[in-house]
Amino acid sequence: MTDSSDKKYPVPTIRRLPSYLRVIKALDFEGREFVSATDIANELGIDSIKVRKDLAYTEATGKPRVGYRITELMHGIRSIIGWDRNSEAILVGAGCLGSALLGFPGFSKRGLNFVAAFDADREKYGTYVHECEIKPIEELEKFITERLIEIAVLTVPSFAAQQVTDRLVNAGIKGIWNFSPVRLKVPPSVVVQSENLMSGLAVFMVRMARGAE
Amino acid sequence: MTDSSDKKYPVPTIRRLPSYLRVIKALDFEGREFVSATDIANELGIDSIKVRKDLAYTEATGKPRVGYRITELMHGIRSIIGWDRNSEAILVGAGCLGSALLGFPGFSKRGLNFVAAFDADREKYGTYVHECEIKPIEELEKFITERLIEIAVLTVPSFAAQQVTDRLVNAGIKGIWNFSPVRLKVPPSVVVQSENLMSGLAVFMVRMARGAE
Predict the structure, then answer these.
(1) Which fold has domain A11-81?
(2) Domain B87-199 carries which CATH code?
(3) What pLDDT shows up at residue B4?
């Protein structure tokens, strides 16, 4: 990553913030006004010192014996992880996994709004998956440039991943959330975030073979 | 993790092994007999020293200027990550994400075979998703104990996750691949591997805001 930003948040911190947010939202829902790092740590079964360090990045100020004001902390976490903004996104590859992602209720709440999905299967054109229209892959570039879309979620088969990526990048996409197992080649200005289920499966299987944690 | 195993593989190594396997399987398919750490490193855009260290865990022996015999290396990687074994698994929660996972072609090739799925929705009972029968959640314990199932993939809504987990553990499940955002409480003997899409989304959004890599 570059140093182009003023603030740098450690990736492990960023990965933990959504679970903190989930815990304090539940407390907020119950009518609580304050939360301590220890409350969050206990709920998630992690070290409270780690939680305290992570929360320091939010710039919310904790008071001794009272903790953090929940509304302030929610705002701080959301603004770090960008869930206070709204981004339009497209999805390319409306197969099993793609369709599941289109229906995931958590994304729009977190600022990621699917405005269209694209697929190469003619039979899908004009159909809707979870209120999102499936459009012909031929219309990909036109849609991206006209709507100034910057984010694409990639759920195409491996063999098509790089070719579709090239088209996305040429059309102006700035970030790709990649669910294919392929390592995508993109210019340095484009962000690729890859989720690899097979890595997770491998770790799971090794831990199972080992027998316990 | 415990020290109960003879060998310990670093988690980052385990996470990388599936992508190495993908690269060398493609070379094998092309008729190649040998592969070097540099070949793999170049294909994946990572450091060749890292690849060499990772491959050392496979106990495959590389020859200078020739590299590793591909068949030997594939065997070595598969045996580390358990993809040379076959495990029966159940899936609980046949919603959007669960159905997508049932249809994922990669799992059975990697030794994870879904033999049944369970759901609380009566309308789904007896239907099939990707050749896997959806059974009533009431039959969960009976099925696990009769078939001696040890692995469960959890794709239920958050509110049901802990309760279903307790039932799985009581019935004898030894490992849970958890796709709910909940931190599950289990006895130390049970392995929980959690995939958290929201963590991935958070990292993606922060990197997008930062603008480049």
Answers:
(1) Arc Repressor Mutant, subunit A (1.10.10)
(2) 3.40.50.720
(3) 37
